[in-house]
Amino acid sequence: MSSAILMASGADIDIMVHGLFSYEVFGQTCWITTTHVCMLIVMIILIGFFIAANRKIKHAKEVPDGFQNVVELIVEMLDKMVQGVMGINSPKFANYISTVFIFILMSNISGIFGLRPPTADYGVTFALGVMTFCLIQFNKFKHQKVKGVLKGLCDPWPIWAPINIISDIAVPISLSLRLFANILSGTIIMALVYGLLGWIATFWPAVLHVYFDLFSGAIQTYVFCMLTMTYINQALETEE
């Protein structure tokens, strides 16, 4: 199991998603894959961090120490990011955007620790895209009402309605594919480096990890959240 989850260096390196064990649900065979296990590891780490952060903030000091500084810095940076894009609407969506941001970022950089990034599986990124799509449509119907939504679909002329519908449907697909393709490409490149060079690639690929895992992972996280906030802002727009 460990060899299927961890991207260990060597000629036997494998980046494919593998089924670890199966179970039956209503007569259908379901599999627990390496993606599930890697995502569970990421979630356990995040939940542990959140619990520790919650307890620390509950007993916060007037003069913050190291860990309290880190927590406050993360919260402040995420709040500023959401505030800068969504303005007065930021309090409603700050928790969702911040949670998605942290989860995607940790998933993207998990490759540094030898895991196969969960976001290199389209099943994960597509689910994130669908969540965003549902949130967009919910707020669109809530604020623009049915009349406003129909009017938007027929803008500028009713003949454009099919194109506007396709444009809306393409939102979760474009969001998920962009994140998935960029993370998967970085994972494949690092796998090729380790697989072809073997023990020679023990130390120097750290520079590549900085780019493909840290830099590219952070950029793709930011892009996903920025587009999410932009789409939600458009859904909140109503005629004066």
Write the layout of secondary structure elements.
Blueprint: H1 2-5, E1 19-25, E2 28-33, H2 34-58, H3 66-86, H4 90-109, H5 122-153, H6 161-197, H7 206-236
Give a verbal description of the structure:
It is a single chain. With 240 residues, the chain is mainly alpha-helical. The chain has one domain. It is 71% helix and 5% strand. It has helices at 2-5, 34-58, 66-86, 90-109, 122-153, 161-197, 206-236; strands spanning 19-25, 28-33. The protein has a two-stranded antiparallel sheet with strand order 1-2. Helix 3 packs across helix 4 (90-109). The longest helix is centred in the C-terminal third of the chain and has 37 residues, at 161-197. 24% of the residues are buried.
Into how many domains do the coordinates divide? 1
Report the major sheet: 2 strands, antiparallel
The amount of helix comes to: over 70%
Secondary structural class: mainly alpha
Q: Features of this protein?
A:
240 residues, mainly alpha, 7 helices, 2 strands, globular, hydrogen ion transport, F0_ATP_A_sf, ATP synthesis, transmembrane, ATP_syn_F0_a_bact/chloroplast
